[in-house]
Every structure is written in C-alpha cells, then in structure tokens.
Specification:
Trna Endonuclease, Chain: A, domain 1; single chain; 36% helix
Length: 168
C-alpha cells in the first residue's frame, strides 16, 4: 500500500538501490567493484594505505582462524567501501577494519560513528544482490556487521558491532 512505511530489511534496501541504478543505466554500475580474497600482494600507495592493508590482512587471518570463510575484500560502491565480506555459516558478515595509534579521540571503535554506519549500510544494500547471487544462489542471507579494531595493539573482534535501525 502506498501509505505503508518502507520495509527496512536489507533486501528491501538492496532492491530499492538496484531499481534506482536501473533507472540511470542498463549496464552494471561501474562504482561497484569487487576484489578477490585473499590479497596476493599489498598494494602500492602511501604508507597509510600500506598500513591499512596490513591491518586488513591481520583481521582476515583472525576471522579465518575463527572459522569464517572469506568471500571478498575491498567491496566498493558509491556510498563507501566494505573492507571484508565473509561467510559465517549461513550469514553474510560484512567487516569494517579500524586502527588508531592511541585512544585520545575515542579509539578505533569511536571512529565508526552513525554517519559511517549509514554509509556502510547503503553500500551493503547496493552490494547485497550481487553477493547473494554469487554465494547464496540468489537467496538473500542474513547480514551482520562486525568490526575488527586495532587500538595500538592486538586486534579486537566485535561481533554485531552495529545494527541497522529503521530509517537509518
């Protein structure tokens, strides 16, 4: 019905994003790129980019040791980038990797603010149909957002670091 509020499920968000893209162009969006996991060589670039790639490598190794299956790295969509996509049983786990040298400004966890969460959710909505087709035979899996945090030392894995709220 036209007066009903929109369905806040990830599938509904993904479907709406795909419809908007289909209206703009017929070919798959150029802003959605996927790199195979795991990374063969750390990319060139600045020292900060190389350090970020190293943190992602450490996070991936931690998650694989805990039984998650890597699907993709550095998934890009126009709203933002999802660092790691993994499979935990029948759940799609999207992981944000954050590192901070010190906790002076709140640390790594504080850097995943509401604006960052919304960007990750919008990126996930755009990428979910493709991941579902590729890894779940078209069936939309449950999605969980995790974070791997580095605050100057060992990694901390936070399961379900944030949840999507209606209207977020």
């Amino acid at each position: 019905m036209p007066d009903d509020p929109p369905d806040p499920t990830p599938y509904a968000l993904a479907a709406a994003a795909q419809q908007r893209l289909q209206r703009r162009r017929r070919k798959p969006p150029a802003t959605v790129r996927q790199r195979a996991a795991p990374r063969e060589e750390a990319p060139g670039g600045s020292a900060t980019q190389r350090a970020g790639a190293d943190y992602e490598d450490q996070a991936l190794a931690l998650l694989v040791r805990h039984g998650l299956q890597p699907l993709a790295r550095n998934l890009r969509a126009s709203p933002g980038e999802i660092d790691l996509a993994l499979r935990d049983g029948d759940t799609l786990v999207l992981v944000e990797v954050r590192a901070r040298r010190d906790r002076r400004f709140g640390g790594a966890a504080a850097s995943i603010d509401h604006a960052k969460q919304r960007r990750l959710a919008r990126a996930a909505a755009m990428l979910l149909p493709r991941l579902a087709r590729r890894h779940w035979g078209g069936r939309t899996p449950p999605v969980r957002f995790d974070a791997v945090l580095f605050d100057g030392g060992a990694p901390l894995w936070v399961r379900a670091a944030f949840c999507l709220e209606p209207g977020a």
